[in-house]
Amino acid sequence: KASDLIRLLKVLETFVACVIFAFLSNTSLYIDQPALEWCVAVYSICFILAAVAMLMDREEWENRLPISFPVFHLGLNFLLSVLLYIGALVLWPLYQFDEKFGGQPERSRDVSCQHRLTNYVCVWDQRLAVAILTAINLLIYVADLVYWARQVSVGTEDQPGDS
């Protein structure tokens, strides 16, 4: 059912963001680097927007919006989430792995990765995990965008709040 799919996508978006936040608990990954701090802001903004969208769906607030719910979601997903995540997908790896921007292109150069502690994720692995999770979340947001673009273009009234 379409409403279950859209709920699943929103849950996935917020879940992946939470995993990203777990890796970002190491503030040395981005502190004092404006481009990377921007990426953290993107993750935070998109997380909040996805959570608000889930709450709006759950509380059936879609009838209180001045525009249709599919148009609202299309704008939310495209103008904010997808475009912001594309920027983060470019900036995060560029500043984490390109030496020209102060990054470390090779795991073997990261001193924290040379220790073989079993319950420890080294800094380079954290950087890589955030880069991969950014790409995964972008794909989820794109799937969400495609769904809502279809809703708007077809003009269907099958909205998540409908049963």
From TrEMBL:
GO terms for cellular component: cell-cell junction; plasma membrane. It is a multi-pass membrane protein. This is MARVEL domain-containing protein. Belongs to the MAL family. It is found in: Membrane. Residues 1-153 form the MARVEL domain. The chain crosses the membrane at residues 12-29, 35-55, 67-95, 128-149. Keywords: Membrane, Repeat, Transmembrane, Transmembrane helix. PANTHER family: MYELOID-ASSOCIATED DIFFERENTIATION MARKER (PTHR17068:SF3), MYELOID-ASSOCIATED DIFFERENTIATION MARKER MYADM FAMILY MEMBER (PTHR17068).
